[in-house]
Specification:
Chain B: The chain crosses the membrane at residues 72-92. Chain B: Pfam families: PDGLE (PF13190). Chain B: This is PDGLE domain-containing protein. The complex is a heterodimer of chains A (229) and B (110). With 229 residues, chain A is mostly helical. Helices cover 72% and strands 3% of the residues of chain A. Chain A contains eight helices and two strands; from the N terminus they run H-H-E-E-H-H-H-H-H-H. In chain A, strands 1-2 form a two-stranded antiparallel sheet. In chain A, helix 2 (39-53) packs across helix 4, helix 3 packs across helix 5 and helix 3 packs across helix 6. By secondary structure, chain B is mainly alpha-helical. Chain B has a domain at 1-23 and 53-93. Helix content of chain B is 55%, strand content 0%. Chain B has helices at residues 3-19, 31-39, 66-92, 102-109. Chains A and B meet through helix 2, strand 1, strand 2, helix 4 and helix 6 of A and helix 1, helix 2, helix 3 and helix 4 of B.
Amino acid sequence: MHVPDGFLDAPTSLATGVVAAAAVAVSLRAARRELDDRTAPMAGLVATFVFAAQMINFPVGAGTSGHLMGGALAAVLVGPWTAVLCLSVVLVVQALLMADGGITAIGTNISLIGIVTVAVGWGVFVLLRKVLPARLSIVAPAAAAGALLSVPVAALVFTGLFAIGGNAPVDLTALTATMLGWHTVIGIGEAAVTGLVVASVVAARPDLVHGARPLLAERVLETRAAVAS
Amino acid sequence: MSRRRFFVVALLVSLLVAGVASYYASSHPDGLEYVAEQTGFIDSAEDSATSDSPLADYQTTGIDDARLSGGVAGVVGVLVMLLLSTGLFWLIRRRDSGDVTHEATHDSRA
């Protein structure tokens, strides 16, 4: 759902620009906790993979399509603060190099795809991790659930922004219904891709999955206790 | 799987997705464009200031073959992403030990 130039008026674009800049600034500080010599290259690869995956539009019927947004995926793999930065780099490269998403809409796109999907995806994931049994096998389904919800929520936030600063008069009830409807279907694709990718990484290197670390921690603590004694 | 091997596989997958698989992606408008057409605000979209970039719309200027043109744009995009994002994350990473004890470290700080 890359927003092009012209959909939203200047004040709204400016406001989302301020929100995006603040979120990136906070994330630059907070991501330090998530990034070290091992996880920094992983974060670079996750951002790169999200860029590549966003090129794959999958059909969702009736002449429309959707592609991965990747907020939930990145948050579970490398942590939420780093994920905001991953998506921001993707969106800036897309806007500047590929003319995908408007230049004046960069703030809007970072807010929708970089902040909302990360926040919803990670929030749902953490909630599920708390209530589900503490096993590695719950990581991929919990990530998929976060992904599923993140897309329609981002669509709703866009609708809200359009209600405030849309440059064309439209029936907001119809806009809300169609945005929500199509993006619920796209969310199923988002969930499938997110679940598959997270499951693959958990199978290969669970220690590289940020969201899986608390579930691995028990084993690590046991090892360290043995070394200490 | 060693970490190096894992990273190489992840990069190869990204290159294949962007460079080869992208040709087979659906060319239908995405959800937002489709809704904009249906509800009648698609005409408020303006061309991006970068719409004459050599890689605009994931096609490479000067390469006529659609498969190759999209493939080159995808591969260049992946390499730019890898350099920029890995560079950024390497710059802002913590400089202390890089092992799993960091979870315990920031738990004790909390």
